[in-house]
Amino acid sequence: VGSEMCIRDRGWANDYIIDWKSKGDQANWEIEVVEDSRFEIFINYNCSKEFLPANLNVKIGDQTNDFNIEK
């Protein structure tokens, strides 16, 4: 497991991450949902080839979805 990243410009719609240094690094966002609803999550991932393949996962409650980025 790597280190946590520095999340900049924390806002309600857009965040970005700097100082990504190793394949084991991770970023986490905790979001409080105050009422049941339906949500969409969009992830725009851009990195140097040295960080590929990349594995991302989105965990909501007890559900986890894993995504593999090859190129």
Notable characteristics:
single chain; 71 residues; mainly beta; two-stranded antiparallel sheet; 4 strands
Task: Give a written overview of the molecule.
The protein has 71 residues and is mostly beta strands. Helix content is 0%, strand content 28%. The strands form two sheets. The chain has a two-stranded antiparallel ribbon. It has a two-stranded antiparallel ribbon with strand order 3-4. A hairpin with a 7-residue loop joins strand 1 and strand 2. The model has no long low-confidence stretch (mean pLDDT 77).
Briefly say what this structure is.
With 71 residues, this protein is an all-beta fold. The chain has no helices and four strands.
Structural class: mainly beta
Whole-Å distance between the termini? 22 Å
Poorly predicted regions: none
Overall 3D geometry? elongated
Q: How many strands appear in the DSSP assignment?
A: 4
Strand numbers in spatial order across the main sheet:
1-2
What is the radius of gyration computed over CA atoms, rounded to a whole number of angstroms? 13 Å
The topology string of helices and strands comes to EEEE
Estimate percent helicity: under 10%
- The percentage of residues in β strands lies in 25-35%
What's the total helix number?
0
Major sheet details: 2 strands, antiparallel
Q: pLDDT average, as an integer?
A: 77
